[in-house]
Amino acid sequence: MANRIESGLTDEILPLLQKEQYVLLSTIDFELGTPNVNAISWIYAPDAQTIRFTIDNRSRIIQNIKANEGVVLTLIANGSTYSIAGTAQIIVEKLEDVPLKLALLELDVKEVRDVMFYGAKMSTQPKYEKTYDAQAAAKLDHQVMQAMKRG
């Protein structure tokens, strides 16, 4: 996809966003008017034009999106880096059947760009591990994913 602009998620990217995935979420800070970047992982793309994600409903991200719905998700995968831009809205203020106070948001994908600089490729994909109880993490991940799939 290098040097191409797509209007939706490609067949290569879509499956990557149908499971927990490390991405960066960029919003515009509602007070400062400057970019604000957060790492998130609860993400689910039901189709090529839509990405759902969950965040703590007390997060500054909520206030930022209420003030300016333009967002960018950055995905590092398939040897490259992708900028996924669009508008986000809050779908549910508090997800049911999930023990945390999580909001469900939905991104309407407008543009996908391969933003990797010329002559390079990512040699590894970012990896992370949960630092709390593995069994509790797996249960919570399952609950959140099911809630995102239901919308």
Automatic annotation (TrEMBL):
Record-annotated Pyridoxamine 5'-phosphate oxidase N-terminal domain positions: 9-97
Gene3D superfamilies: Electron Transport, Fmn-binding Protein, Chain A
Coiled-coil positions: none
Taxonomic superkingdom: Bacteria
InterPro entries (UniProt xref): Pyridox_Oxase_N, Split_barrel_FMN-bd
TM region positions: none
The protein's name in its UniProt record: GTPase
Organism: Halalkalibacter akibai (strain ATCC 43226 / DSM 21942 / CIP 109018 / JCM 9157 / 1139) (Bacillus akibai)
